[in-house]
Structures are given as C-alpha cells and as structure tokens.
C-alpha cells in the first residue's frame, strides 16, 4: 500500500536535495570540460595522450569520480515527483511539466541556435566552433552548412546545448509515470532487473534514454514506499563504499591509459563494469557520507543563494565551456600545463558567468526568467 504523502519534506532532506541539485550541475560542468583526446566520453573511452599528472587527474575526475551526477539527479527527480503525487490529477501535472520542462527545452535550444549563428559571424569564435566538433552533423559544424530540415532537427532533437537531453528524458518519464508507478510497486524485482540491464548495457528507451528508468524509478519507489532516505541502510559501510568508489575509478583510469588498438570487447566490458560500479558507489557515498559538507554549505547564506541558479548553470554551460576551452587551448598553448589549468579553472568561470547572468536576468526581467527556467530559482535567498 502506498505510504501517505507527508505534509512537507524533512528540513534536512530539503537541504540535501537543493545541495545536490546544485553540486550535480557544477560537477556536470567539470565532466563536459574534459579536454583530452578523444573528447567524447563513454565508459570505455581510452586516452590517446601521454600519461601524466594532468591527464591522469582529468580522466579520473571527468570519466570516473564525478560520473554519479546524472543518476543522483534522476533519483531526486523521481523521488520528488512521486512524493508530490495526489496534489493534482496526472493530466494537470503533465501540463505543468510541459511548461516547466518542455518549454525551457525548446526555448534554450532556440536561444543557443541564435547564439551559434552570432558566433559564426566572427572569425575567432567561428574557429572555436569548428575546433570543438560537437555538432552531430560531422564534419559539418556550422549552422550555415545545414539544410532547413537539419536546422529543425538541430532545434528539436539535437540541440546545441546537448545536455538538454535530460529535460526530454525527464518529461518522458513524467508522461509514463502512472505505468511506471504500477511497475515499481507491483513488480519491483522485474522492473528494476530490466531497468538495470538497460542502464548497464546502455540500451536507450526511445525519448527516455538508458539511465532514467532505473534511477528515476528508484527515487519514485523510495517515495511511494515511504522509505527513510536520510538514514543509511544497515548494510552500508561508508568507508568500504568510498574505497570501492575510488578503487573502481582508479583502475578504470589506469586501463584507459594502457589500452591501444585494437580495442578488445573484454577490455571495453571491463571498463564499462568499473564505470557502473563507480556510478553506484559514488552516488551512495555522496548521499549518505557527506552530510557534514551539506550542513556546512547550507548554513551559509551565499551558498543557499547559489542553489537558486542550478538551472541556469545547467542550460548555459554547454556549449559555452566547449568553445571557451578551444579558445583557451589555442591562445594559451605557450602556458605550462594549459590543459590542466583550463580544466580546473574554466568550469569555475563558466559557473560564475552562468550565475551572474541568471542573477541579472532575474533582477531585471523576472517574468522572462520564470519562463526560461520553468519557475525555478525565483526566490532571492
């Protein structure tokens, strides 16, 4: 039987949800700021550059320790969506989500198309767009090279801010929530077995992807069953789990620098398995093992203020960080350790710019800000 929906969230749980919603976005910037070759990160991506402290650290962070950020976001979203069940009919909830997820998706994709067109008018910025090579229409990287149909596809399906796939996936999960709810409550073993296999082998569900069904479903199940998500399970040993998280990521990083062509299937599966272990253990360590950090940060007014701009960091950081990376590497090539410095410092600058633009827009045009963010972060403290 479904647990009764609480009147309000536990105050510390509310703080944890806001903290990790922000931190997951900051970590997302660091994952997307990866500047080694090949740039496109998959669980089994090798490294084509020499092993050194800088290259080792980049891979360990971007393709190891920080990869739990999407699972924890899906789990938070699933928990909150299920926790609010009953507040209004599902059809009304879906209409609301079309406004808070679908409309920002369309608007930000269109805004970035306009921004890309403007960047292509300046030779320096145009070269950065070419160097980044993040257009799905490779080798054609410029909007001027696309047909009318491809421009529509670029707007609706393959947005320049490619991280918007998360909004599309979340909207799809919200649409099918009544069926998902039945599955996680009545046949949880079957549901999570199937969702787990889809996640592990990276088999995407159309319009939803491969990660959402497992972690959104987990969050929904926890809320529907009234589970205490603040108290760690009895079997959980934070120290051992942290060692597993670090060990899996270290071993995967070592393998990434050891492999060479031909890239064998057993090696790819080994790296994939280590990646998945790192995701799960990292999410559990972050949620249950860092309460002290959460309390310290959420006791600071400036940090609470920052949590209001999580969405702005999300929608602005890509492709901004990609183009800025190419400019930094092109014009700073004489600077020692430029790849590592760019990786460590540029994300902080991108976060600061995103927060600054968000704060300015919220101050001068709160109505527009509300539409662009789906109503998120409207509080001023």
TrEMBL record:
Q: Which residues form the signal peptide?
A: none
Pfam families found in the cross-reference section: Acyl_transf_3
**InterPro entries cross-referenced by the UniProt entry:** Acyl_transf_3_dom
Kindly give the membrane topology term recorded for this protein: Multi-pass membrane protein
Task: Show the stretches that span the lipid bilayer.
Answer: 17-36, 56-81, 102-119, 162-180, 189-209, 267-290, 302-320, 340-361
- Acyltransferase domain: residues covered: 23-357
Entry keyword Plastid? no
Q: Any idea where this protein resides?
A: Cell membrane
GO terms for MF? acyltransferase activity
Q: Which UniProt keywords apply?
A: Acyltransferase, Cell membrane, Membrane, Transferase, Transmembrane, Transmembrane helix
What the record says about family reads: Belongs to the acyltransferase 3 family.
UniProt name for this protein: Acyltransferase
